[in-house]
Design a protein that fits this description.
This protein has three domains: 126 residues, 2-Layer Sandwich (Uridine Diphospho-n-acetylenolpyruvylglucosamine Reductase, domain 2), CATH 3.30.43.10; 127 residues, Uridine Diphospho-n-acetylenolpyruvylglucosamine Reductase, domain 3; 201 residues, Vanillyl-alcohol Oxidase, Chain A, domain 3 (3-Layer(aba) Sandwich), CATH 3.40.462.20. The chain is 27% helix and 25% strand. It has 15 helices and 20 strands. A seven-stranded antiparallel sheet has the order 17-14-16-15-19-20-18. It has a five-stranded antiparallel sheet with strand order 7-8-12-10-11. A four-stranded mixed sheet has the order 3-4-6-5. β10 and β11 form a beta hairpin. 48% of the residues are buried.
Protein backbone atom coordinates (compact mmCIF):
# COMPACT_ATOMS: atom_id res chain seq x y z
CA UNK A 1 0.00 0.00 0.00
CA UNK A 2 1.34 3.46 -0.87
CA UNK A 3 2.14 5.77 2.02
CA UNK A 4 -0.63 8.19 1.02
CA UNK A 5 -3.21 5.42 0.91
CA UNK A 6 -1.98 4.08 4.26
CA UNK A 7 -2.33 7.50 5.87
CA UNK A 8 -5.82 7.92 4.48
CA UNK A 9 -6.90 4.49 5.71
CA UNK A 10 -5.52 5.24 9.16
CA UNK A 11 -7.26 8.62 9.24
CA UNK A 12 -10.56 7.18 8.11
CA UNK A 13 -10.28 4.34 10.62
CA UNK A 14 -9.58 6.77 13.45
CA UNK A 15 -12.56 8.92 12.49
CA UNK A 16 -14.87 5.92 12.18
CA UNK A 17 -13.76 4.61 15.55
CA UNK A 18 -15.17 7.76 17.15
CA UNK A 19 -18.70 6.90 16.02
CA UNK A 20 -21.22 5.06 18.22
CA UNK A 21 -21.22 2.10 15.81
CA UNK A 22 -23.85 -0.06 17.48
CA UNK A 23 -26.46 2.70 17.18
CA UNK A 24 -25.05 4.27 14.04
CA UNK A 25 -27.72 3.17 11.57
CA UNK A 26 -30.58 2.23 13.91
CA UNK A 27 -33.06 4.66 12.35
CA UNK A 28 -34.12 6.08 9.02
CA UNK A 29 -33.08 9.66 8.27
CA UNK A 30 -35.37 12.43 7.04
CA UNK A 31 -33.96 14.39 4.14
CA UNK A 32 -34.71 16.90 1.36
CA UNK A 33 -34.81 16.04 -2.32
CA UNK A 34 -33.51 18.09 -5.26
CA UNK A 35 -37.07 19.33 -5.72
CA UNK A 36 -37.29 20.49 -2.10
CA UNK A 37 -39.62 17.70 -1.02
CA UNK A 38 -39.26 15.72 2.19
CA UNK A 39 -37.98 12.19 1.69
CA UNK A 40 -36.89 9.32 3.92
CA UNK A 41 -33.49 7.70 3.60
CA UNK A 42 -33.74 4.07 4.62
CA UNK A 43 -31.29 3.02 7.35
CA UNK A 44 -30.24 -0.01 5.32
CA UNK A 45 -29.37 2.20 2.33
CA UNK A 46 -27.36 4.52 4.55
CA UNK A 47 -25.56 1.55 6.11
CA UNK A 48 -24.67 0.22 2.67
CA UNK A 49 -23.49 3.66 1.56
CA UNK A 50 -21.30 4.06 4.65
CA UNK A 51 -19.84 0.62 4.09
CA UNK A 52 -18.87 1.38 0.49
CA UNK A 53 -16.61 4.37 1.19
CA UNK A 54 -13.23 4.47 2.89
CA UNK A 55 -14.10 7.75 4.54
CA UNK A 56 -16.91 8.26 7.03
CA UNK A 57 -20.58 9.14 6.84
CA UNK A 58 -22.02 11.34 9.57
CA UNK A 59 -25.66 11.87 10.48
CA UNK A 60 -27.09 14.39 12.97
CA UNK A 61 -26.51 12.21 16.06
CA UNK A 62 -22.97 11.17 15.04
CA UNK A 63 -19.92 12.31 16.96
CA UNK A 64 -18.26 15.13 15.03
CA UNK A 65 -21.36 16.05 13.04
CA UNK A 66 -21.76 19.54 14.53
CA UNK A 67 -18.15 20.43 13.79
CA UNK A 68 -18.28 18.98 10.27
CA UNK A 69 -21.35 21.00 9.29
CA UNK A 70 -19.86 24.37 10.31
CA UNK A 71 -18.69 26.72 7.58
CA UNK A 72 -16.56 29.86 7.52
CA UNK A 73 -19.50 32.28 7.30
CA UNK A 74 -21.43 31.50 10.48
CA UNK A 75 -24.41 33.41 9.22
CA UNK A 76 -25.36 30.01 7.83
CA UNK A 77 -26.33 27.41 10.41
CA UNK A 78 -27.51 24.50 8.32
CA UNK A 79 -28.17 20.88 9.21
CA UNK A 80 -27.57 18.34 6.44
CA UNK A 81 -29.14 14.90 6.67
CA UNK A 82 -25.75 13.28 5.97
CA UNK A 83 -22.13 14.35 5.59
CA UNK A 84 -19.81 12.13 3.56
CA UNK A 85 -16.18 12.84 4.43
CA UNK A 86 -14.46 11.37 1.39
CA UNK A 87 -10.84 10.21 1.22
CA UNK A 88 -10.55 9.33 -2.47
CA UNK A 89 -12.06 9.94 -5.88
CA UNK A 90 -13.80 6.56 -5.57
CA UNK A 91 -15.49 7.79 -2.38
CA UNK A 92 -16.69 10.86 -4.28
CA UNK A 93 -18.12 8.67 -7.04
CA UNK A 94 -19.95 6.54 -4.45
CA UNK A 95 -21.37 9.64 -2.76
CA UNK A 96 -22.54 11.14 -6.05
CA UNK A 97 -24.18 7.87 -7.08
CA UNK A 98 -25.93 7.56 -3.71
CA UNK A 99 -27.22 11.14 -3.86
CA UNK A 100 -28.33 10.81 -7.47
CA UNK A 101 -30.18 7.54 -6.86
CA UNK A 102 -32.17 9.21 -4.08
CA UNK A 103 -32.44 12.58 -5.88
CA UNK A 104 -30.93 14.03 -2.74
CA UNK A 105 -30.08 17.73 -2.47
CA UNK A 106 -26.27 17.85 -2.53
CA UNK A 107 -23.66 20.40 -1.49
CA UNK A 108 -19.91 20.14 -2.06
CA UNK A 109 -17.49 21.36 0.57
CA UNK A 110 -13.80 22.06 0.08
CA UNK A 111 -12.71 24.82 2.48
CA UNK A 112 -16.25 25.84 3.41
CA UNK A 113 -15.64 29.48 2.45
CA UNK A 114 -18.75 29.98 0.33
CA UNK A 115 -20.03 33.44 1.30
CA UNK A 116 -23.57 32.33 0.46
CA UNK A 117 -23.22 29.14 2.51
CA UNK A 118 -23.64 26.83 -0.48
CA UNK A 119 -21.00 24.41 0.80
CA UNK A 120 -23.60 23.12 3.27
CA UNK A 121 -27.33 22.50 2.99
CA UNK A 122 -30.36 21.75 5.14
CA UNK A 123 -31.61 18.19 4.84
CA UNK A 124 -29.31 17.13 2.02
CA UNK A 125 -25.95 15.44 1.58
CA UNK A 126 -22.67 17.32 2.01
CA UNK A 127 -19.82 15.75 0.04
CA UNK A 128 -16.85 16.89 2.09
CA UNK A 129 -13.44 16.80 0.36
CA UNK A 130 -11.39 18.16 3.26
CA UNK A 131 -9.56 14.84 3.80
CA UNK A 132 -8.46 14.96 0.14
CA UNK A 133 -5.73 17.56 0.55
CA UNK A 134 -2.61 16.08 -1.03
CA UNK A 135 -0.30 18.41 -2.98
CA UNK A 136 2.50 17.09 -5.21
CA UNK A 137 4.98 19.40 -6.95
CA UNK A 138 6.78 18.51 -10.17
CA UNK A 139 9.74 20.88 -10.04
CA UNK A 140 11.05 20.03 -13.50
CA UNK A 141 7.71 20.62 -15.22
CA UNK A 142 6.73 23.48 -12.89
CA UNK A 143 3.29 22.06 -12.17
CA UNK A 144 1.34 21.27 -9.01
CA UNK A 145 -1.06 18.34 -8.69
CA UNK A 146 -3.55 19.42 -6.03
CA UNK A 147 -6.45 17.43 -4.64
CA UNK A 148 -9.83 19.13 -4.56
CA UNK A 149 -10.06 19.40 -0.78
CA UNK A 150 -6.71 21.12 -0.25
CA UNK A 151 -6.52 24.59 1.17
CA UNK A 152 -4.50 27.37 -0.41
CA UNK A 153 -1.98 27.12 2.38
CA UNK A 154 -1.36 23.46 1.58
CA UNK A 155 -0.25 24.40 -1.92
CA UNK A 156 1.82 27.39 -0.82
CA UNK A 157 3.69 25.41 1.82
CA UNK A 158 4.75 22.82 -0.76
CA UNK A 159 5.56 25.12 -3.70
CA UNK A 160 7.14 28.22 -2.18
CA UNK A 161 10.15 26.53 -0.51
CA UNK A 162 11.00 25.31 -4.02
CA UNK A 163 10.86 28.84 -5.41
CA UNK A 164 7.56 28.24 -7.19
CA UNK A 165 4.09 29.76 -6.86
CA UNK A 166 0.84 30.49 -8.63
CA UNK A 167 -2.14 32.76 -7.95
CA UNK A 168 -3.85 31.42 -4.84
CA UNK A 169 -6.10 33.86 -3.00
CA UNK A 170 -5.24 35.91 0.07
CA UNK A 171 -6.48 33.75 2.98
CA UNK A 172 -4.68 30.44 3.43
CA UNK A 173 -7.60 28.47 4.91
CA UNK A 174 -9.67 29.03 1.74
CA UNK A 175 -10.35 25.87 -0.28
CA UNK A 176 -8.46 25.51 -3.54
CA UNK A 177 -11.53 24.09 -5.30
CA UNK A 178 -14.04 26.82 -4.54
CA UNK A 179 -11.61 29.67 -5.12
CA UNK A 180 -10.34 28.30 -8.42
CA UNK A 181 -13.62 27.22 -10.00
CA UNK A 182 -15.04 30.72 -9.51
CA UNK A 183 -12.05 32.43 -11.10
CA UNK A 184 -9.49 32.78 -8.34
CA UNK A 185 -8.18 36.25 -7.57
CA UNK A 186 -5.04 36.69 -5.48
CA UNK A 187 -1.81 38.50 -4.77
CA UNK A 188 -0.06 37.21 -7.89
CA UNK A 189 -2.81 37.82 -10.42
CA UNK A 190 -1.32 40.91 -12.03
CA UNK A 191 1.87 38.92 -12.74
CA UNK A 192 0.52 35.47 -13.55
CA UNK A 193 -3.21 35.84 -14.16
CA UNK A 194 -6.18 34.46 -12.27
CA UNK A 195 -6.11 30.96 -10.80
CA UNK A 196 -8.19 29.70 -13.74
CA UNK A 197 -5.60 31.10 -16.15
CA UNK A 198 -3.09 28.69 -14.60
CA UNK A 199 -5.25 25.54 -14.58
CA UNK A 200 -3.76 23.05 -17.06
CA UNK A 201 -6.31 20.33 -16.40
CA UNK A 202 -8.63 18.72 -13.88
CA UNK A 203 -9.92 15.34 -12.77
CA UNK A 204 -13.66 15.67 -12.23
CA UNK A 205 -16.57 13.49 -11.12
CA UNK A 206 -19.67 14.34 -13.13
CA UNK A 207 -23.31 13.97 -12.16
CA UNK A 208 -23.53 10.50 -13.71
CA UNK A 209 -20.70 9.27 -11.49
CA UNK A 210 -18.03 9.20 -14.21
CA UNK A 211 -14.43 10.21 -13.58
CA UNK A 212 -13.28 12.43 -16.44
CA UNK A 213 -10.10 14.24 -17.34
CA UNK A 214 -10.58 17.71 -18.78
CA UNK A 215 -7.83 19.71 -20.41
CA UNK A 216 -7.06 21.40 -23.71
CA UNK A 217 -7.16 18.04 -25.55
CA UNK A 218 -9.56 15.87 -23.54
CA UNK A 219 -13.11 17.14 -23.01
CA UNK A 220 -12.08 20.70 -23.92
CA UNK A 221 -15.62 22.04 -23.50
CA UNK A 222 -15.68 20.82 -19.91
CA UNK A 223 -12.19 22.24 -19.37
CA UNK A 224 -13.48 25.59 -20.56
CA UNK A 225 -16.54 25.38 -18.28
CA UNK A 226 -14.71 24.64 -15.03
CA UNK A 227 -12.48 27.67 -15.51
CA UNK A 228 -14.87 30.22 -14.07
CA UNK A 229 -18.16 28.29 -14.16
CA UNK A 230 -18.05 27.32 -10.50
CA UNK A 231 -19.20 23.89 -9.39
CA UNK A 232 -21.85 23.58 -12.07
CA UNK A 233 -20.40 20.61 -13.93
CA UNK A 234 -19.12 18.24 -11.28
CA UNK A 235 -16.76 17.77 -8.35
CA UNK A 236 -13.14 18.50 -9.19
CA UNK A 237 -11.05 15.98 -7.28
CA UNK A 238 -7.70 17.10 -8.69
CA UNK A 239 -6.29 20.26 -10.26
CA UNK A 240 -3.11 20.61 -12.28
CA UNK A 241 -1.71 24.13 -11.92
CA UNK A 242 1.04 25.85 -13.85
CA UNK A 243 3.66 27.16 -11.43
CA UNK A 244 6.00 30.12 -11.88
CA UNK A 245 9.46 30.87 -10.56
CA UNK A 246 9.33 33.26 -7.66
CA UNK A 247 11.57 34.58 -4.91
CA UNK A 248 10.11 33.31 -1.61
CA UNK A 249 11.07 36.65 0.00
CA UNK A 250 8.96 39.69 -0.94
CA UNK A 251 8.33 43.22 0.27
CA UNK A 252 5.22 43.87 2.36
CA UNK A 253 4.05 47.47 2.51
CA UNK A 254 1.14 49.44 3.85
CA UNK A 255 0.03 52.96 4.70
CA UNK A 256 -3.12 54.07 6.47
CA UNK A 257 -4.78 57.49 6.43
CA UNK A 258 -7.49 58.94 8.71
CA UNK A 259 -11.05 59.56 7.57
CA UNK A 260 -10.34 63.30 7.57
CA UNK A 261 -8.36 62.87 4.34
CA UNK A 262 -10.24 59.82 3.05
CA UNK A 263 -11.29 61.27 -0.31
CA UNK A 264 -7.79 62.43 -1.15
CA UNK A 265 -6.34 59.12 0.04
CA UNK A 266 -8.72 57.13 -2.15
CA UNK A 267 -7.83 59.29 -5.13
CA UNK A 268 -4.17 58.60 -4.34
CA UNK A 269 -4.90 54.87 -4.38
CA UNK A 270 -6.61 54.96 -7.76
CA UNK A 271 -3.90 57.17 -9.26
CA UNK A 272 -1.12 54.99 -7.83
CA UNK A 273 -2.62 51.63 -8.79
CA UNK A 274 -3.80 52.53 -12.28
CA UNK A 275 -1.26 51.07 -14.68
CA UNK A 276 1.21 50.37 -11.88
CA UNK A 277 4.14 47.99 -12.18
CA UNK A 278 2.81 44.43 -12.51
CA UNK A 279 5.22 43.35 -9.78
CA UNK A 280 2.88 45.12 -7.36
CA UNK A 281 -0.12 43.69 -5.57
CA UNK A 282 -2.07 46.74 -4.42
CA UNK A 283 -5.13 46.41 -2.23
CA UNK A 284 -7.06 49.55 -1.32
CA UNK A 285 -9.76 49.84 1.27
CA UNK A 286 -11.99 52.02 3.38
CA UNK A 287 -13.01 50.61 6.74
CA UNK A 288 -15.09 51.57 9.73
CA UNK A 289 -14.56 49.78 13.02
CA UNK A 290 -17.19 49.06 15.63
CA UNK A 291 -15.96 51.99 17.76
CA UNK A 292 -16.52 54.44 14.88
CA UNK A 293 -12.88 54.93 13.95
CA UNK A 294 -12.00 54.39 10.35
CA UNK A 295 -9.70 55.27 7.52
CA UNK A 296 -8.23 54.42 4.15
CA UNK A 297 -5.62 51.70 3.81
CA UNK A 298 -3.30 51.10 0.84
CA UNK A 299 -1.16 48.03 1.11
CA UNK A 300 0.19 45.02 -0.64
CA UNK A 301 3.36 43.38 -1.83
CA UNK A 302 6.21 44.14 -4.19
CA UNK A 303 7.68 41.17 -6.04
CA UNK A 304 10.33 42.96 -8.06
CA UNK A 305 13.94 43.89 -7.34
CA UNK A 306 14.06 45.07 -3.69
CA UNK A 307 16.48 47.84 -4.66
CA UNK A 308 13.65 49.49 -6.61
CA UNK A 309 11.09 49.49 -3.82
CA UNK A 310 11.78 53.02 -2.55
CA UNK A 311 11.28 54.44 -6.03
CA UNK A 312 8.14 52.38 -6.67
CA UNK A 313 6.47 53.26 -3.37
CA UNK A 314 7.57 56.92 -3.29
CA UNK A 315 4.14 58.36 -4.37
CA UNK A 316 2.46 56.60 -1.45
CA UNK A 317 4.99 57.53 1.18
CA UNK A 318 5.29 61.15 0.06
CA UNK A 319 1.57 61.79 0.41
CA UNK A 320 1.92 62.49 4.13
CA UNK A 321 -0.67 62.43 6.93
CA UNK A 322 -0.36 58.65 7.30
CA UNK A 323 -1.19 57.19 10.70
CA UNK A 324 0.95 54.14 9.92
CA UNK A 325 3.60 53.31 7.35
CA UNK A 326 5.47 50.01 6.93
CA UNK A 327 7.84 48.52 4.37
CA UNK A 328 9.36 45.21 5.42
CA UNK A 329 10.81 42.11 3.75
CA UNK A 330 8.92 38.93 4.59
CA UNK A 331 8.49 35.36 3.37
CA UNK A 332 5.63 35.10 0.90
CA UNK A 333 4.25 32.01 2.61
CA UNK A 334 3.82 34.15 5.74
CA UNK A 335 2.14 36.90 3.73
CA UNK A 336 -0.36 34.32 2.50
CA UNK A 337 -1.33 33.71 6.16
CA UNK A 338 -1.26 37.30 7.33
CA UNK A 339 -4.99 37.84 6.68
CA UNK A 340 -6.12 34.52 8.17
CA UNK A 341 -7.22 35.99 11.47
CA UNK A 342 -9.23 39.05 12.49
CA UNK A 343 -12.17 39.71 10.19
CA UNK A 344 -11.28 36.66 8.06
CA UNK A 345 -11.17 34.17 10.93
CA UNK A 346 -13.84 31.45 11.02
CA UNK A 347 -16.66 31.92 13.50
CA UNK A 348 -18.08 35.29 12.41
CA UNK A 349 -21.27 36.31 10.67
CA UNK A 350 -20.81 38.02 7.33
CA UNK A 351 -22.71 39.78 4.59
CA UNK A 352 -21.06 41.12 1.44
CA UNK A 353 -21.87 42.62 -1.93
CA UNK A 354 -19.45 43.08 -4.77
CA UNK A 355 -18.97 44.08 -8.37
CA UNK A 356 -16.54 45.16 -11.08
CA UNK A 357 -15.73 48.80 -11.77
CA UNK A 358 -15.23 49.81 -15.38
CA UNK A 359 -14.20 53.38 -14.61
CA UNK A 360 -13.37 55.51 -11.60
CA UNK A 361 -14.52 59.08 -11.03
CA UNK A 362 -15.04 61.64 -8.27
CA UNK A 363 -18.70 60.65 -7.84
CA UNK A 364 -17.66 57.10 -6.96
CA UNK A 365 -15.10 58.30 -4.40
CA UNK A 366 -17.64 60.64 -2.83
CA UNK A 367 -20.22 57.86 -2.61
CA UNK A 368 -17.78 55.41 -1.02
CA UNK A 369 -16.80 57.86 1.70
CA UNK A 370 -19.95 59.83 2.45
CA UNK A 371 -22.24 56.81 2.69
CA UNK A 372 -20.04 55.18 5.31
CA UNK A 373 -21.02 55.52 8.96
CA UNK A 374 -20.32 53.65 12.20
CA UNK A 375 -22.72 51.02 13.46
CA UNK A 376 -22.56 49.24 16.81
CA UNK A 377 -21.78 45.51 16.80
CA UNK A 378 -20.19 45.30 13.37
CA UNK A 379 -17.13 46.18 11.36
CA UNK A 380 -17.55 47.36 7.79
CA UNK A 381 -15.01 47.55 4.99
CA UNK A 382 -14.81 48.25 1.28
CA UNK A 383 -12.04 46.48 -0.61
CA UNK A 384 -10.60 47.50 -3.98
CA UNK A 385 -8.40 45.30 -6.15
CA UNK A 386 -6.97 46.22 -9.59
CA UNK A 387 -7.96 43.82 -12.38
CA UNK A 388 -5.40 44.97 -14.95
CA UNK A 389 -2.18 43.22 -15.84
CA UNK A 390 -2.15 39.54 -16.80
CA UNK A 391 -5.92 38.91 -16.32
CA UNK A 392 -6.78 41.65 -18.82
CA UNK A 393 -4.67 40.01 -21.53
CA UNK A 394 -6.87 36.89 -21.70
CA UNK A 395 -9.81 36.92 -24.08
CA UNK A 396 -13.31 37.33 -22.66
CA UNK A 397 -14.40 33.98 -24.13
CA UNK A 398 -11.16 32.05 -23.61
CA UNK A 399 -12.43 31.09 -20.17
CA UNK A 400 -15.83 31.55 -18.54
CA UNK A 401 -14.64 34.72 -16.79
CA UNK A 402 -16.35 37.45 -18.80
CA UNK A 403 -14.93 40.46 -16.96
CA UNK A 404 -11.53 40.87 -18.57
CA UNK A 405 -12.21 44.56 -19.19
CA UNK A 406 -12.84 45.39 -15.52
CA UNK A 407 -10.57 47.98 -13.94
CA UNK A 408 -11.19 47.04 -10.28
CA UNK A 409 -13.09 44.55 -8.17
CA UNK A 410 -14.94 46.19 -5.31
CA UNK A 411 -16.66 44.55 -2.37
CA UNK A 412 -18.44 45.84 0.72
CA UNK A 413 -18.39 43.51 3.71
CA UNK A 414 -20.01 43.60 7.13
CA UNK A 415 -18.67 41.32 9.85
CA UNK A 416 -20.20 40.72 13.26
CA UNK A 417 -20.14 38.24 16.13
CA UNK A 418 -21.49 34.74 15.58
CA UNK A 419 -24.01 35.01 18.43
CA UNK A 420 -25.33 38.50 17.57
CA UNK A 421 -28.30 37.22 15.58
CA UNK A 422 -30.53 40.02 16.81
CA UNK A 423 -28.68 42.58 14.65
CA UNK A 424 -28.77 40.52 11.42
CA UNK A 425 -31.61 42.45 9.79
CA UNK A 426 -30.25 45.86 10.72
CA UNK A 427 -26.75 45.15 9.42
CA UNK A 428 -27.87 43.48 6.20
CA UNK A 429 -30.33 46.27 5.44
CA UNK A 430 -27.62 48.87 5.96
CA UNK A 431 -25.18 47.03 3.71
CA UNK A 432 -27.79 46.63 0.97
CA UNK A 433 -28.60 50.34 1.14
CA UNK A 434 -24.90 51.21 0.90
CA UNK A 435 -24.46 48.90 -2.08
CA UNK A 436 -27.53 50.30 -3.80
CA UNK A 437 -25.65 53.59 -4.14
CA UNK A 438 -22.39 51.95 -5.23
CA UNK A 439 -23.81 49.37 -7.64
CA UNK A 440 -24.53 51.82 -10.51
CA UNK A 441 -20.75 52.26 -10.87
CA UNK A 442 -20.32 48.49 -11.44
CA UNK A 443 -21.18 45.83 -13.99
CA UNK A 444 -21.13 42.17 -13.09
CA UNK A 445 -19.69 40.51 -9.98
CA UNK A 446 -17.19 37.88 -8.85
CA UNK A 447 -19.21 34.67 -8.48
CA UNK A 448 -17.19 33.72 -5.39
CA UNK A 449 -18.84 36.75 -3.77
CA UNK A 450 -22.33 35.50 -4.61
CA UNK A 451 -24.64 36.10 -1.66
CA UNK A 452 -28.29 36.70 -2.62
CA UNK A 453 -28.29 37.60 -6.31
CA UNK A 454 -31.26 36.25 -8.24
CA UNK A 455 -31.10 33.90 -11.24
CA UNK A 456 -31.38 36.74 -13.74
CA UNK A 457 -28.35 38.48 -12.21
CA UNK A 458 -26.40 35.22 -12.26
CA UNK A 459 -27.21 34.59 -15.92
CA UNK A 460 -26.30 38.09 -17.03
CA UNK A 461 -23.09 37.96 -15.00
CA UNK A 462 -21.76 35.26 -17.32
CA UNK A 463 -22.28 37.68 -20.20
CA UNK A 464 -21.87 36.33 -23.71
CA UNK A 465 -20.51 33.10 -22.26
CA UNK A 466 -23.83 32.08 -20.72
CA UNK A 467 -25.24 30.40 -23.84
CA UNK A 468 -22.15 28.23 -24.19
CA UNK A 469 -22.28 27.40 -20.46
CA UNK A 470 -25.84 26.14 -20.86
CA UNK A 471 -24.69 23.78 -23.63
CA UNK A 472 -21.95 22.40 -21.39
CA UNK A 473 -24.44 22.06 -18.54
CA UNK A 474 -26.89 20.24 -20.81
CA UNK A 475 -24.18 17.73 -21.69
CA UNK A 476 -22.68 17.05 -18.28
CA UNK A 477 -25.45 17.84 -15.79
CA UNK A 478 -28.82 17.86 -17.59
CA UNK A 479 -30.79 17.29 -14.35
CA UNK A 480 -29.06 20.19 -12.55
CA UNK A 481 -27.83 17.84 -9.86
CA UNK A 482 -25.07 20.35 -9.03
CA UNK A 483 -27.23 23.36 -8.29
CA UNK A 484 -25.86 24.85 -5.09
CA UNK A 485 -23.61 27.36 -6.85
CA UNK A 486 -23.86 30.36 -9.15
CA UNK A 487 -26.18 28.13 -11.06
CA UNK A 488 -26.31 27.57 -14.79
CA UNK A 489 -29.71 26.02 -15.39
CA UNK A 490 -29.93 23.33 -18.09
CA UNK A 491 -32.55 23.55 -20.83
CA UNK A 492 -33.00 19.84 -21.51
Amino acid sequence: MHRRELLRSAMAAAAVSALPLKQAWAEDVQAISLDGNSITLNKADIRDFAGEIDGIVLKPDSAGYDIARQVWNRFWDRHPALIARCTSVDDVVTAVNFARSHRLLTAVRCGGHSMSGKSVCDGGLVIDLSYMNQVDIDVDQKVAHVEGGAQLGDMDRKALPLGLATTAGVVSHTGVGGLTLGGGMGRLQRRFGLAIDNVLGVEIVTADGKILTANAKENPDLYWGVRGGGGNFGIVTKFIFRLHSMNPMVINFGVRFPMAVAKDALKLYFDFSSGADEDLFILGGVSMREDGTGGVSIGGNYFGDPSNVDRVLKPLRDFGKATSDRVIPIEYVKIQRIADDGVNAPGKRRYAKGGFLREVNDDLITTLIERMEPMPSRSFSVGLLPMDGAPSRVGASDTVWAHRDASYNIDSTSTWAMDDTDVDEEIISWNRAYWKDVEPFTRGFYINQLIDEDQGQVNSNYGNNHARLVKVKNQYDPTNFFRLNANVRPTV
